[in-house]
Amino acid sequence: MPRLFLFKGFHRILQTALIHACKCQPQDLLALLSHSTPISKKDLRSTLERLEDFYPTKDICIQLHQTLNSQPVDGAFWSKFLLASDELKRPLLARGVLDFVLTTPDSHNIATIMQALRSLVSYKRFEEFHSLFDTLVQRLTDAQKKAFSDELVELLSNTPYWNEALGFLPSCSHPRGTRNLSEGAVQFGSFDDVFRLLDNLNPYNEAPSDRFFRLFFDRLGDINDLKHIDRLFSVLHEKVWVVSDQTAKVITTWFNSRVPSDYQAQMEDVQISGTTCSHCKSKLPVFRIDEENLKQMADEFYQSAFKGTRQEHLYLTTTPKELSTLDKFLNEQTMPFDCIIDIMNVVHLLDAAFVPEKATRLVCEVLRNLNRRFGFHRFCLVGKGARVVGNKTFWSAVKTLGNQLGISVFTFITNQRSDDDIFMLYIALWSGPRCHLVSNDEFKQHRFTVGLDLGMRISQWQATRQIALCQQRRQPFLEPIQCDTRAHGSLSIGWHIPYDDKSQRRSYVPPNHWICIKPQSYNK
């Protein structure tokens, strides 16, 4: 008999049996799975959609279960049945199966018990959840506990027993486990519990989920004590976290819906120009990085990008000889550079084929514009630009320009087979806090290669120190941002919170959309 026919026949039997399950004798279900054809969640859902909700008795479930066990059908049937019942809002169907699983847990596999636990959470049957969860944990081996640690923490985090998940946290994926636990703490724990967990999340890219913020502000309700909000915003500042646009709406709505409202929040069309808020005209702090921290970044980048952190990564981007040449070049400098220029990016601005004389004029024009706009005086051209600097007219033109403007120009030309990007990045970092990098490259690969923490710090530095080249004569540069993009403020003066609306921008540039929260007494 064709398999498709068996499959369709199975569904007819399933549909008929379920429709009459609460009315007919249990024997009518014996033919339910007479054919060994698995049923997908999609097909099961399609069948259940045509049914009214009803409570399947334990006897019905037992006979159906025995039929399942007698045929090589589908070990995930009950888990799919529960999931489809929950999605279709069939609480009686789900309750009947849940009651059956709770009374016969040893008869069910891990997939069924996991889905039963999820359903128990959704129905807030927490005591029964706890009992079944303990049964599951006792059954799992140490290897299985480690393999299922993410799921176990997520389950516990949605119950009053959230803190029992701490034992599984070391085996969890980071930051997923801590994020889930923070959601549990904000529902069932104290605010001190919440902030202790937030402290375990890393800066920059490990902000809590949108659900966490929604739960946080839901729990606050209409209370007048704003110390928890002030503490939360202080954590945003410390961790350099940028919230999503959905969370921004939650925050704005919470402030504006309070009666009486002591604060007014605005998120539409609020941007920072330079360091000035377009809405309230307040000045935000500029981004600052001290000499010591930047030197540490440069040293870490040198080790990771040039030498490599593992044996197989040694000197993949350069050669020992070229690296020695770089060290000698920098040791000979009497002072740091003001500006590092990606020389090939400048050459690529030429519309026509490469002509040395045109390239020289273009480089000189870029130097002149940078000096006029930013006041740079000490430049270093870096890259595979031997064709430019090797031309006879180049140094004559640069010398003339230097005499006119009082600037000095140095070059570090890399080998054709070397990765010139890391040279210009390193020389810029080496030159200190005031040095800028002129390049259209985003250096995404290098930020990824050096590791998450250093990569994020380099990205923050790029946003405030990298200048991109444009071909428009009126606007030859895309200037770096000035503002330190993180939460700023206090309850007394108000807060500015950056949020990400997913608009297109360079990968290292932070969003320029903000929530402006001001006391009602504040006057522009």
Radius of gyration: 32 Å
Beta percentage is 5-15%
Q: Provide the CATH architecture of the largest domain.
A: 3-Layer(aba) Sandwich
Average pLDDT confidence is: 86
For the record, the count of structural domains works out to 3
Strand order of the largest sheet: 7-6-5-8-9-10
CATH class of the largest domain: Alpha Beta
Shape: elongated
Describe the structure.
Pfam families: PRORP (PF16953). It is found in: Mitochondrion. Belongs to the PPR family. P subfamily. It comes from Clonorchis sinensis (Chinese liver fluke). With 524 residues, the protein is of the alpha/beta class. It has three domains: 139 residues; 127 residues, Tetratricopeptide repeat domain (Serine Threonine Protein Phosphatase 5, Tetratricopeptide repeat, Alpha Horseshoe), CATH 1.25.40; 186 residues, Rossmann fold. Helices cover 50% and strands 10% of the residues. The protein has 23 helices and 13 strands. It starts with a helix and ends in a 5-residue tail after the last strand.
